[in-house]
Amino acid sequence: MRPRKIPQRKCVACQQMMAKKELIRVVRSPQGEIQIDLSGKKPGRGAYLCGKVSCFKLAKKSKAFERALKVPVSADIYDRLEADFVKVEDEFQANKEMTDDDEDGE
Ligand SMILES: [Zn+2]
């Protein structure tokens, strides 16, 4: 008799727990490549981040991805991820709003 719970994950930058769909997943693939995974379904070790550039910058400053993904992350990779992050942010927000519309709310 467990109540249904929304799966929650912690943002690696600000340490806030949030519903999974509020977070952007960054994944280290089995090949060792680090990339943003909007689908949330790619294989590999994942780290979650709020869909906010401010949190990305915080993660970069505190080297949160190194800790979460347990692998060295070079400045190049951070730069590439940051560019991707800015690109997917709009798409991410749009998807989120679409999902909200589908639900009938409380
Ligand atoms: Zn955050």
Automatic annotation (TrEMBL):
Pfam name, any one: YlxR
Superkingdom of source: Bacteria
YlxR domain location: 9-82
NCBIfam families named in the record: RNA_bind_RnpM (NF047356)
Classification via PANTHER family: BLL0784 PROTEIN (PTHR34215), YLXR DOMAIN-CONTAINING PROTEIN (PTHR34215:SF1)
Protein name: RNase P modulator RnpM
Organism classification: Bacteria, Bacillati, Bacillota, Bacilli, Bacillales
